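[Q] Does anyone have a clean structure-token version of this?
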Amino acid sequence: MSIERPAHGLMLQSKVESGAACIAVIGMGYVGLPLAVAFAESGSRVLAVDLDVAKVDALNAGRSYIRHIDGARIAPLVDQGLIDATADMARFDEADVLLICVPTPITRHLEPDLGYVVATTEMIAKTLRRGQCVILESTTYPGTTREVMQPILEAGGLAAGRDFFLAYSPEREDPGNPDFSTTRIPKVVGADDPTSLDIALALYRRIVPQAIAVSSAATAEAVKITENVFRSVNIALVNELKLVFGAMGIDVWEVIDAAKTKPFGFMPFYPGPGLGGHCIPIDPFYLTWKAREYNQHTRFIELAGQINSSMPERVVQALAEALDAHSGKGLRGARVLVLGVAYKKNVDDIRESPALRLMELLEARGASADFHDPHVDRIDNTREHPTLNFRAGIPWDLEAIAGYDVVLIATDHDAVDYCALVEASPLVIDTRNACARAGAPLDRVVRA
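[A] Here you go.
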């Protein structure tokens, strides 16, 4: 038996397919901004919403504040009226579709903090009208869309799937990756009614090569969690192998490079000083928290988290031992230069970066820790690392670098001359195998 679709749902779907729908993207960060640009470039009118007035002003002036998003793409879209940035949440009623791209951090007790999602949903509920569609993109635990957002949106008397439409589509951004920009990554889409699903699929098909439907919003939420748990667990595995093989005198990077020549059954992951970014260090804990509601225990996932979170301490200990062996000098009073504070190469995002934890640990043991990062001029205000707030990086100056007792490579940006770095430095601790990949001499390099 066919299910009768609400007339305003069919009208919205037609509007979306034609490109006539106005799309509000809420949260102009590393997920929201490229999404807004992609929809605007497809010809849709985009309301770019953020409470940060500095971001709003930059966008309305045609400027980008994210290094890998070229301002030359934004300016013509603003001039054509396709991007209209605002901090005014009362304008939500102008939009036909509202995409939520706000942070979903964890608390100090490793529990989900949905404060941004809840606050945004409550603001949408104030102006929610028939025929609008709300889609959450923020990473979260399975059940958030139905259990948290839907009751807030329905409190005014409108019903999801009948009066308004609700879906979930996880963001899949990989900032700084030139091979996979927003419009080149397939989108997973889930909803709890067929009309909401069809509207969301029609929307994303305007900008991505493939939109994959799943049976529910919770399933789509589980897809995102699974993707990030997969990476977290495999990175923990190679971090542990690094320690085991290191004790045996075996180079883990050589092992991985050889293993990946197998054309099946192996996927290369690489060790590092810890995990960073807004996904992998956080998302697995959303699942472990939700699993407890069902009396399920995620021992494997939690163990991976413990291994990854312990890596900064391991790196600092390896640095201390190498410094003592090289110069007989302990960490107290040592001058350390941390190379790279972004959480991954070739981006300017420092969220959850292990480099920040490394700097704190070094200074707790009496060293001084400066940093150089070609993409980060200073450490912005962070809740988690208050002692580092507003610290400015040092410029690239080989004479100045030579004055440090040791250089710790935390992020392997491509814009660094590693051969020159090794030549200038008395000792280099390399957590990313950057020096070997650059062909630098390794006599003063310790891989950790």
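[Q] Thanks! Anything notable?
[A] The CA atoms of residues 320 and 331 lie 6 Å apart.
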